[in-house]
Fold:
Amino acid sequence: MYYAYNLYVNDVLTTDLVIPDDVTKINKYAFYGCGGLTSVTIGNSVSNIDEYASGSCSGLERVVIPESVAEIEPYAFDKCSHLTTVQYCGNSDKWNDMYIGSGNDYLKNADIEFNYVME
Structure:
């Protein structure tokens, strides 16, 4: 099986993905290899981002993470080499308490904006 470079939602090319609030977990390999994604906004009910969920999304520049996320599993954002901005809805203490597994160096090294308010 090969993963698509581009993501289409309702036959429309999607570069800015918004995950709905009724989603509670982003499963393993959910968006793996979708290099056409540039931005992902995660819904307020997500508590877990599984391994390789957004791995190899080479075009991903920005991710919005709600305070509800308690675990980012290993390699969830592996090889996201253009990820430079993380907008986190919680404070720095909550971020530091969150489990972030190995292989998420681009996420950890991005500029993190705390207390982000989603529109």
Observations:
- The chain has a mean pLDDT of 93.
